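Hey, I'm writing a tutorial for new members on how sequence and structure tokens pair up, and I'd like a real worked example in the thread rather than a made-up one. If someone can provide the structure for the chain below, I'll link this post from the tutorial.
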Amino acid sequence: MSQVTDTTWANLLIRASAGTGKTFQLTSRYLHLLAEGESTSQILATTFTRKAAHEILDRLLLRLAHACRDGTAREELASVIQKAPIVQQECEWMLEKMVKNLHRVRIGTLDSFFAQIARSFSLELGLPSRWQIVEEVHDQRIRADAVQEILSDENVSSLRTLLNLLSKGDIRRNINGLVHDTVDGLYDLYLETSREAWFEVPRHKPLGEQDLANALEQLREVEIISKRLARAKSEDYQRALEGNWEEFLAKGLAGKISSGVLTYYRTEISAELVQIYQPLIDHAAAELIGLVAMQTEATYELLDRFHAVYQQRKTERGVLRFDDVTRSLA
């Protein structure tokens, strides 16, 4: 169903599903402007794909050609574009006007329109001279080269730290694959966000070494009558002792208490036990949030390194992606 907010030609908004006649409405608006004497170079029709752009141009030429040969088609065209009866000579004039000025017809994709503007202001935008849009295959090769340059950087110690954080310490992961996955998955997000956004994960102070030792000792020594609770407490203590905070918060009594549930297999967890667990739960949360913060910051640092090398490589080759053009114009 189409929804038109204004019946005049001044401003017209059409909201419609596929196949409901948007192209017909757009070409009708174009023909109205043409009939009013507008130059083809002053009318812009943009869409998202080349196929749709070609369809618009084809539809314009066919509608005019039919109107030139058929009186009924002329009457329908006059009715649609809200113009007094159109004579054959006028239709021929509009068709001739379009055909003779095909090189000036501004019907294309949004990307191509932005590229035309950017080429007119390459110097002001700081773009490479005589730049061109890079093919996808070529761009993938440039990205791969940029990743390899990062991995072969002389300053490998800081890079190793970054990769260790990103892989959560799992050195079995393929480093090359890890960097590629990070770039492929998050580079677009990096381009759309500020540096500050990656450094805003709130940090909480964990327990100091002695306070942590005391909290662990308290948990170890507390006596529990229920065998099931005692066994769960013992397993929690082992996880905490090993620093396995993710499982500590997910399982056992700590998992229940941290989620606000004060029973374990229908056995009540005493207030005293909750009090003993709470410092360790807070410490676990602080450690895990801190890890997320460091991983997020490490991700930004890696993407920032990639961006610098990738942009340099594209500049050297005089190529841009369509999103580079859009971002430069913005």
